[in-house]
């Protein structure tokens, strides 16, 4: 069996060159492409996610790891049959209408990606209609809404109401977060959950998709 | 418009560099003098969970009225020598300038009522939100966004604002990227090149409006910049030393407001204001422990060392057992100010300042760079730079040097990861060419248009190259 | 049970009478020493709007768990040398002692977790609510109410409480009537006769339980008494001088806990604790500006002069922008304590104490009677009394005398109405006979049974007559 | 016409003896008993209420005035035909179940009495059933509920619900107050109003009974 330790470590280090070298080595050794991705690349990324969660890695380091992982995946992709690559589910994420706060939402997206979810980040100031369109287009399973202002958090409610109106509320789980958000507010507007930070968001998504 | 040059510090004596006193105090028409010896409470407030639109505007206005009544009544009861109220307008109240004007009128109306009835002195700082971002922005200095910002400034000034302020965001998207990647050169480009240019254009306009409306152009803060770093560092997402260096770099950008004619007091959430005070003598507002309602802090006490106004940053109008939160917070601020002012009256202000500094300085590099002595030393280096670009670069390198020697002297705690990043940032700095044009060319080539679109900034490459 | 006698002050030197230091520090098993030189934050918290019953208990417990997690995590982050958490049980958790015990277990569990994981030192004060009132009360010292109070104390102690405390209410209905009518003799009867006797009976039991459970009997406050006056005076419903005199009178009652074996730290909301400290050397918790979340105050800073723990009184678990309110308040308390402790380390504690006093002393007689010098002078008079009755009477007359001379010396502001009431209270005091039995007989004759029923108190008239 | 100034002033002073002397004087002068009460006694008390509201009188002074007014009324009462004495409406007041806080509620009661309302103070720890019974018994027009604990304020809601169940919600106005209470909470539980202090409570009651 191929030893993936070196490859995983290169991902953890965020060492692009090393990752590419190790992936090529594995390919030459005829290792199953899916194993390269799941055990080698994503395996390393899972460690990164864990270490970030316990404050053992900084965001720039996580981003470097993610970039190197993606570089590795690009090398393997041509060897895969169509549709063979899977993920743990698709998350549509964005900051709600009227609110331009970006970074907190991006961090949650980053952590979700590290944990093997597919993330569609719509950006900021997103209307209910835009969220709905993205869910439909990408077969989203989770809708993650962010708001940092007390005066925009009610846009979360409108977005959930739009889901109901479109008859798709049962097909999607809605999670919310941001400085003024609380579990109580989440209950009030009928969201499926609230997360206080990026790590909690990952756990919440995992739980909801079980 | 002409630009002031600050090539030496306003302070040469550390013993004069202290809270409540500024070399260039701001004298207001009601007799309050900011930086004239008294630290004043500056209370900041915001709406509870609610929508702002045409329909809800009456409710919005009555919320503001209720909050200001509570605040003024408490300030009168506790015999505050004067208060400052800051309203940071919410986006819809800048997108619709007339709403921002209505808020100003209601707030100032209550303040006037308490002055007439009880003699309570108060000043109103209107902070217009910088809406120049988002999908529909076409240009930074013309079109709907710019026009609304300018209209809101003028409207608020005419409606009775005493101070105009903003937390401007030119170059912010570049900086967001820099923070996420701990990319100091990119932060430098955002702050020292793009940000400073944007500040000049924006503040020329604000100073002009102020002159025409008999209002005071107070200042800017790098809230969208260094405070983003601060929050990220606080969550352990990035090294604290990045946030500390970023804070000092931001000083050069924030200073541009004063170069273009702002006279203070600088805004509360700009902790870099201490550098502004050192270099220009402008009075500053600061926030610390009593802003925990808005965000946790590692500079809870040290932030007060040089404060001329003392603020709670922001609190929503929610009910606590002791009353509505804005009323609760003005009370806390008033008592905080009493401690500082009584210490001054007893001749113990310097000792109080040093206690406040010693309280926090050791535990976080972000606190360390707010120590008055450190501020003077680094400021002395900054003013040696000839351009904003140079000054921002010096700010970074001087801060790294200061932190390194402080660590060696046991004056600040830095763990191995933080120290590693000091090395990394030092290396990053060395890659930056001395030629601003060369640097700019490189950065633009390596930025995507969604982070920085030179065309929207009228970014004249030739001007940089000169 | 034997009673300690305090016939002279624990302090003879004003320079030793200061925050953080108590003549009889309380040494705790985790190494924290209350009154041993460090002022510790003591955070108090309560539930948001919710019902407490069998069904909601899981939610109640998870609310407490969430709050304590937030608090401990922040205290660890800000490197607090230790914290105290006070839980004032809500009535249903004393009516159902097992619920109070469950709360204790959950809270202590989280505290232990943070000690084990991070070494965060913390102490838990469980304050049982005194439920001995209401329509169904049959007797103060037997029957359901008493039994539940005692069971709750024992249960909380066994479940891990470090300190036991209560805000006992024996004689409170008499006092309510006294406040509404500004009737000093009635207040004296409530506090110095009925209250002191009730305290002795109650505290003998608490001290016994503490000894058996290896818990610390900490103290009582006159919350239902002097704090009622304080709130009424704050609303201008009664003269401030009544509240000030009442505060000092309460000291004699609160002191009984220590006479019966309580060792401190005395509870936060008992501002009369400063007298307790002066007379017995017991460390005390105090609350001031950072308790504005619970009530507005005229003693925001002066309350800290002699504090060994510094508290926020009470805050609900509601969300503010910066986080849940209990977490916000522990942060503020930690920074407050840093200021005081750093001043001590720099040898400036006395100056800091005097700044805190000068901050408020002048503006309200209730603040004036908390000034350390004033406290020592009045305490010196109080201990001359041979009985609780005598001492309480002296407390009143000495306070009146002190306020009068302070006013004459320009040390405290009193308007004409306040001065008029000083005269009124002086006259009221003169009507009180020197003989306690005679006084008691008169007061009982002039009280209705719903305000004071001697039978429910086992009030032995012969014992008084002796 | 009889000059009521002396009588009113005696009420304002809270001077029992003087009030009784002046009332006797008026009776001897054959002054209309209702005028003695309304112009002399209640007239004085209205001034007291106003002065208390602007912090010009303390509670003990108001109570003394109220006592002297009542002493005066006792002297006049025998001269009145049954039912001739009127009031501005009856207020049932109490602290809700589970809550033993007394004084704030008593102050509101006191101020309402000063303002000419009839007040039935049920005391503390009052169940919905007890409130309902008191409304029925006294033909109450206003139900004033007090709570000082975050954990008892929901008893206000149960009390209002009980009014609805008993089919009497439309016959009574419910007002609430106490430290943790806000207008928002009042709206939430469907009360008719919230008052932040005793003076505001009087204004609210007057407005609701118009
Ligand atoms: Zn800001
Ligand atoms: Zn209390
Ligand atoms: Zn307490």
Automatic annotation (TrEMBL), chains A, D:
Keyword NAD attributed: no
Keywords recorded for this protein, A-Z: Cobalt, Metal-binding
Pfam family, one: B12-binding_2
SUPFAM superfamilies: Cobalamin (vitamin B12)-binding domain, Methionine synthase domain
Highest taxon in the source lineage: Bacteria
Domain named B12-binding: residues: 88-210
B12-binding N-terminal domain segment(s): 1-88
Keyword Magnesium: no
Protein name per the record: Corrinoid protein
Organism (species): Desulfosporosinus nitroreducens
TrEMBL record, chains B, C:
Top-rank lineage group of the source organism: Bacteria
Keyword vocabulary terms for this entry: Methyltransferase, Transferase
One annotated GO molecular function: methyltransferase activity
InterPro entries hit by this protein: MeOH-cob_MeTrfase_bsu (IPR021079)
Biological process according to GO: methylation
Name this protein carries in UniProt: Methanol--corrinoid methyltransferase
Source species: Desulfosporosinus nitroreducens
